[in-house]
Amino acid sequence: MTKLTEKISFKSIILGALVLILSYIAQINLAIAILLIVLCIYLELRNLKIKNCSLPNLTLLYLSAVTSGYILIKHNFPIYYIPFSIVPMLTTLLFGNLEISLLMTMASSVTIASFSGYPLQTTVLSLTSGIVSSILVLGARKRNTLIRAGILIAVFQVLTLIFMEHLQIISIERHTILFINGIVSSIIVLGVLPVFEYLFNTATNISLLELADFHHPLLQRLIQEAPGTYHHSLIVGNLSENACRAVGANALLARIGAYYHDIGKLQKPEYFSENQANIENKHGDLAPTMSKLVIMNHVKEGVELAKKYRLSPPLIDFIRQHHGNSLVYYFYLRALEKTEENQDVEEEGFRYPGPKPNTKETAIVLLADSVEAAARSLKEPNPGKIGELVHKIINNKFIDGQLDECELTLKDLEKISAVFIRLLCGIHHSRTSYPESERIENNHKKPSKENSHLSGENKKDNP
Ligand SMILES: [Fe+2]
Ligand SMILES: [Fe+2]
């Protein structure tokens, strides 16, 4: 009991009092206010840590459900017109959590029932519709899933009414309205989802998968103008997705974030090692401080490009955070080499501006980005070399404090390393030499063939 009271913050007590006062003024049954307070306390104690699942966002969804019900009832529409499933579907899609959605369904159902005039019927219909719709759209990745869910919700709503009326169809009109209600609700959800994504600063699986389409203008530009960066981003996406799955993070978000993390390189693609396969090194004539500026600018330019193409804020976080405040090591060393003995080179001046990754997903992309670039530069890669390299890079990032603001544990880092090593070994496996092909190769051997792709500047850490 002591622990329970300790966990409830002063802010919650004030909020609870506010709910009671507002309910009294709005002449809402005070029992509803008590229920809302209990649900809020439950949520606070559960501490679910779902991004953007804040009290204001939950309140907005709750008020949307209650207000739509209230308006329809006040205009003498029968309860069958109330779109019971819209808010439960939105809650599930926006937060990706069934528990939150069920609590929202419970709160809105009981509130609407309290002023509907038919409390039992409204509660049962609303709860059934809300629970079924939440389950049906959980993890939805396509718009079609919502339409299919709408049809099933329509069927469930009609069946609920039939069971409530003891298996009799008293009025076909009610059943028709409830059926249409289910389908129309799913269409409304499709329409308003982008608005709520914008308001809540989040991205659902549906909009993320639309960004995975390689016909997106930004990905098309990467393919055409910076093919090396495009290929690098695909591998980073693959590494990040699998690593996220291993530690229970959002794998889809990380994959799409990785696809777009380096779009800032589109401004000057030829200055980045992965795009220098057939051209001379552009940094040859530049001072290290100038090179550093060009390299570091890809983060700022990436953010600007993302805003121009209206990428959602969670994706912009990947662009902003994928280097944390790491050191542009190669050019820092070059600056040290070029500086006379009595002069100093400020390390801070060669660090990305940050911020450091603040989610598991952005931190994993930071790690995948570095290991992919470093593994690409390995000569004659083998599992031993790849394993050593992955451990070294992850350790360095950890020691450098780049993972300080995310929630990855040491155990997570171990799992991430294992995934990276497994996948990188698959990508960079040494080619098996068959006796026949060896003989043919020896006959046609040309000395200039080796390492033709290793012409880039920075082999240690991809800028
Ligand atoms: Fe990168
Ligand atoms: Fe980058």
Instruction: Give the distinct bound molecules.
Output: fe (ii) ion
CATH architecture of the largest domain: Orthogonal Bundle
The CATH class of the largest domain is Mainly Alpha
Query: How helical, in percent, are the residues?
Result: 55-70%
Separation, N- and C-terminal Cα atoms: 53 Å
- Give the overall pLDDT as a whole number: 86
The parts where pLDDT drops under 50 for at least 5 residues are 437-461
SSE diagram, text form:
Elements: H1 2-7, H2 10-25, H3 30-46, H4 55-74, H5 86-95, H6 98-116, H7 119-137, H8 143-164, H9 172-199, H10 205-211, H11 217-225, H12 227-247, H13 251-260, H14 288-308, H15 313-321, H16 329-338, H17 360-376, H18 383-399, H19 410-427, H20 435-443
The structure holds fe (ii) ion (2 copies).
